[in-house]
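Table S2 (text version). Query chain:
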Amino acid sequence: MSENKDVFEGVRKTLIQTLYDKKLPVLLFPTIAGLIALVISMFLTPMFKSTAIVFPAATSTVSFSEQRNAKASSMDFGEEEQAEQLVQILKSSRIRNIIVERFDLMNHYEIDANDENKYYKLGKAWENHIQFARTRYGSIQIDVWDRDRELAAEIANKIVDLIDTVKNDMVRERTVPAFDINKRKRDMLEKEKDGLTAQLDSLSTLGVVPTESRANLFQAYNDAKNPTDKAFFKEQIDVNLKYGATYDGLVMLRDERIVKLTKFEDAYEQAESDANTLFNHKFVVEPAVVADKKDKPKRAIITILSGIGAFVFIVFLILIRERLAELKRNSQTSKA
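Corresponding structure-token output:
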């Protein structure tokens, strides 16, 4: 243990002595590197940052069910699942394509329209200028960097606006066909009910009456005082005996259709609401504003990191040269 400590102490003293002997390059090289980095940073294009923060909504529909989930309120903030979904929508090509076209970003990012790699370059430029991230509070942060401070704020706020547009379009791609199916089903039930009602009306015109009224026909026939009345009630009884069963069957079918329509009404209203209602899918916590100072390049950080990097490099280079020189001397000594 003591031998290891002595070896370490010897190495440390040798390193310090070496750096002291080479103090001029050790100090000069990082200083020059830092100054060069500072000068270069002066020529870098200033980038301004605008940030918008939104919370996802917990639900994207109005529930017509009596057993409505308490967490499905349109007033509730979304949780992790909704936040992840919102981030995926923000990163989708739907939003990117609209923003690129709306603000002519191909020209703004100086990408040649005839370049065979233009979409690759556009994707890289998009990633460097526009970023989306979840915060620890469950919200979504939208960051936009641009050399035009006003354009950065406009892009960020437009992205916020597009959240509802794009998600509503995605939802309608499913809800509109579902509503069309529900509408056809409802229309079919209505048509069947109306057809059965029309048949019942035609039988009623012939004199067919509901089951509970037919017994009265026999009583009226027995109570009739003259041949004319008896003939009338006899005719009514014959008609009901002939078409009564058909009439009862039609009444049963019509009542079944009415019950189905009543039960189907909630599903139809839900499908209609989902297909035709344009929802707000987010809560805007903080809209983007025009930045009053640049966000990058941070010249101080660039200069310091360049100096540190140059210091590490020169120390490493000096140690390698010293080690090589030592190995060379040992080799010459062993040969002698």
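Notes on Table S2: The first strand starts at residue 48 and ends at 56. Residues 1-43+297-316 form one domain.
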